[in-house]
Amino acid sequence: MSPISRRSLLRAAAVAGAAAPFSRALGAEDAQAAPGTEAAGADPVTLDWLEDGGLGAAPGSTVGVPWPKGAYRPDQTFALTDADGRAVPVQSWPLAYWPDGSLKWSAHAVSSGSGKLTLAAGDAAAPDNKVTVDSSGGTIDVSTGVITVSIGKNGSTLIRSVTRGAAEIARNGRLVLIRQPEIEDEDQGTVRTERFDGAISDVTVEQDGPVRAVVRIDGKHRKGGRSWLPFSIRLYFYAGADSFRMVHTITYDGTQEPGRASGDFIRGLGVRFTVPMRDEPYDRHIRIGGEGTGLLREAVQGITGLRRDPGAAVQAAQYAGRKLPDPSTWDQRVTTRLPYIPEWGDYTLSQLSADGFTLRKRTEKGYGWIGAGGGRRASGFGYVGGVSGGLSFGLRDFWEKYPAQLDIRDAHTDAAEVTLWLWSPEAQPMDLRFYHDGMGQDTYTKQLEGLEITYEDYEPEFGTPYGIARTSELLFWANESTPSPEALAQQVEAVRVLPQLAAPPRQLIKAKVFGPGLYSEPDRSTPAKARIEDHLDFLFTYYKGQVEQRRWYGFWDYGDFMHTYDTVRHQWRYDIGGYAWDNSELSPDLWLWFAYLRSGRADIFRFAEALTRHTGEVDVYHLGDWAGLGTRHGVQHYADSAKQQRIANTTYRRYYYFLTADERVGDLMHANVDSDETFLVLDPLRKVRTDPYTPDRHALSIGFGTDWSGLVSAWLTEWERKGLKWEKARARVLSTMKGIAAQPNGFVQGSGLYDLDTGEFATADQPVVSVSHLSAVFGLGELCAELIDLVDMPKFNEAYLDYCRYFNATKAEQAARYGTDFGSLLLFQGHSRLDAYAAVRTGDAKLATRAWTKFYDSDGYKESSPWTTQKLSGPVALVAGEEAAWVSSNDTALYGLAAIENLALLGDRMPS
């Protein structure tokens, strides 16, 4: 059986048939590589796991693999083998295409494997237990060959049942939301809450096997006549697995007004299941994860530690989770007194900070809680069930995205209830109100004055959370009996670090994806190269350590880091305007992903993964007038009034998507295709314009730097993916490239008037010099390198290379070329990578020399920088640790990208 579904084959055929219009935009060489010809083929690729241990207890893994242009037709099939040459079942589908129609990225799903795997062209092996999807009835029934999950098509029950064989392991899987309409102000107010249930509006089968199936469920939380807090749930199933994965996204659409105590405050947000309890109370088991792979291991009715001993073998069996012998075989002093041993039906583990969890239990509702332990950081894992089966469950990034909680209720009855709280109801309500009263900044003039002192771009009513989103990941196992401690430890590890297959850096480099030539594998062959590699390692290690030291954790915060350091307070400027959360400023996302692409390091991947999850969801609006725009750096992720393309930039999401085929990130990129419409709603330069300007559908002012780079990245990605709007996206890519090239001064012109209906820039009558130090540092350089490789448009190439050639030039050189210089600029070190790119493209040795000169001796970090940290302890710091007061996130991102790209492009031409 073909590993590509019928739907994918039809789609690929449509792509192949549409290759002719693509080729008209390309040179003759590319046009000859159309998919009607025989594919050239490519060498097999060795895939490996990011971390040791392989798949472990996880249900499966999906990886994206790039291919050189023209190597494979879009409908190419693939085979997978293990280290011994045995066939490994794999499901493959296309992720992206080169403009000539050949396959650029393919995705591959596996449900088994622990070592290296080899991917090559061929026919895929089918799994022994295939995933099947039956949508014919009132439910969608997905079978992995081991478990069957029945998914509701309407109502409030997302998952009707989870069965294994004849046993029902769980049922009534639903969402729960607790709204608190009023927030307490210290000791004032009365706490009232109301519960909303998730109501399904749409269910879609996105994949139907044989190795992987994906079902998407969309809806809103509902109570009575009100529906709010949209959710999007994806359920992932893999062949032969006894588990499934849930990716859970909410988008905030409530109201919380600054200065008011009433509003839509989330008190609790969770996923809940009912678990049948068929065994005797002493054969029912509770397992709750503590630190590491630590577990609370108890029975609902414990028979260990009693005054009377039932026998060592009986006690050992209960602790191990095995079925106990008939009580008639125990010491009868215990058996006859079983009714007097308490049955503990309720357990709660609360993680209300990144540094502490508490665990407690009680017999049943209405009776007192008993402390059962605690620690620092819980794994977010639990199990409830018995010797005849039970449910394991886990919430990824449990303590990192506190406040989180796990509840088990009524385990002493016929049906236990499990709730994984993404926001713990025991925490303070989710308070998203803006953090100050505006301080009188009611005009643009006053707001610009405020910007001068706190660096915050404030504007009334702009600091709203309406439209931001957050994604969480959960895992569930349907166990046929209580798992052994070793099996539970494997499940815990899968929750904490979801196994991920990966293609090696050499394949990414060979395929020439993400800007050909811009990154290469680390090279320490000379002292100069080794020093730069040491500096890159230092910066990543420092930021990774600062996340821990400064506790940059929390439901809305985890994944991001701070912008600027306060050297006097020995603290990052977390409370000062635009110096606080970084929000992708100057492209740290690119720095981290390029660092991973060249190294394949798991720790860098995980750091970048958390950043991508955060910046793509929390820093961007997904609903309302500003949908498609992101928010500039600030004290709160959504607080600043600068809502711009530069933060919503699809470039920052592309890496994670193509490396993992993650559908949620794919949604985010697709949603940006129409974000050019936002320029009609909000003028990003409204506060500083001196010329009369009113947004006009046929004459929108759009900058060629931060604005266009955000737009064209979404269009390019939609075109590559052949999404639903790929034809519009392709036209926009080509028309705007042509429009920029046609300006009197190309990119140096700065901006153009854009027609939303035609997707074209008007050509200016007069040359203008308008250059910003920010234009090229939000992914423009990396995108242009991709576009130049993909599209044959010499005039665009010339316009971009001119920009590269003259940004770091002297003012006299700028004036000689354009009639006037570029004014006062910054970020020369970061722009040295533009010099390096232009040097390679043009063969200009002077540009190569200037690239290294600007890298080593302009602004930013220097060889003479300390490249070390200083110890911190009380009383100057809240928590003992270290600081590098000379480090700033802007400089880090620019140095990291310049170092990586300069080494790749001009590593053989470094100064002695």
From TrEMBL:
Keywords from the UniProt entry: Signal
Domain of life, per lineage: Bacteria
Pfam families associated with the record: PcRGLX_1st, PcRGLX_2nd, PcRGLX_3rd
PcRGLX/YetA-like N-terminal RIFT barrel domain location: 44-115
Domain PcRGLX/YetA-like C-terminal alpha/alpha toroid: 499-910
UniProt signal peptide: 1-27
Stretches that traverse the bilayer: none
Keyword match Signal: yes
Domain PcRGLX/YetA-like central beta-sandwich positions: 131-491
Protein name: Tat pathway signal sequence domain protein
